[in-house]
Design brief:
mainly alpha
Length: 98
């Protein structure tokens, strides 16, 4: 005796069999997907930390070498004014004895 299955019956039973397996996979993926952004946060935190450390090292080296923090945006005018100020201060502190 022959059992007659229609294509639709076979297709729906296969879908039901797959859907229970897929449901388990989907549940696992949904739980893991919730914290997926944390995978990107750790490297970004490391990169940001290294940039902060590098900037701080440059700041400390410059401060140790020159005795004061670096003046940001120092142009030719600022350099000329620093020279003039240094000359004036040196002349006042150490007057030339003629």
């Amino acid at each position: 005796m022959y059992t007659i299955f229609s294509y639709k019956t076979i297709q729906t039973t296969q879908i039901h069999k797959l859907s229970s397996k897929d449901q388990i996979c989907r549940d696992t993926n949904n739980n893991m997907g919730r914290f997926q952004f944390l995978e990107a946060v750790l490297p970004l935190g490391i990169i940001a930390g290294m940039l902060c450390i590098a900037g701080n090292v440059q700041y400390q080296i410059h401060k140790a070498a020159h005795g004061r923090p670096k003046h940001i945006g120092n142009d030719m005018w600022d350099v000329a004014m620093e020279r003039r100020d240094k000359k004036i201060v040196d002349d006042k502190l150490y007057p030339a004895s003629n």
